Amino acid sequence: MTPATPLESPLPDRSKPTIRSAKEQLILDAAEKVFAELGFKGATTSEIALRAGIPKANLHYYFPTKEALYRAVTENVLTAWLAAASSFDVNDDPAEALAAYIGAKMDMARTDPLGSKIWASEIMRGAPVIEDFLHTTLATWLASREAIIQSWINKGLIVPMQPRYLIYLIWAATQHYADFDHQITALNGSAPLDDAAFTTAKTQLITTLLRGVLNVAKSDT
Question: Do the Cβ atoms of 140 and 8 come closer than 8 Å?
Answer without folding.
Answer: yes
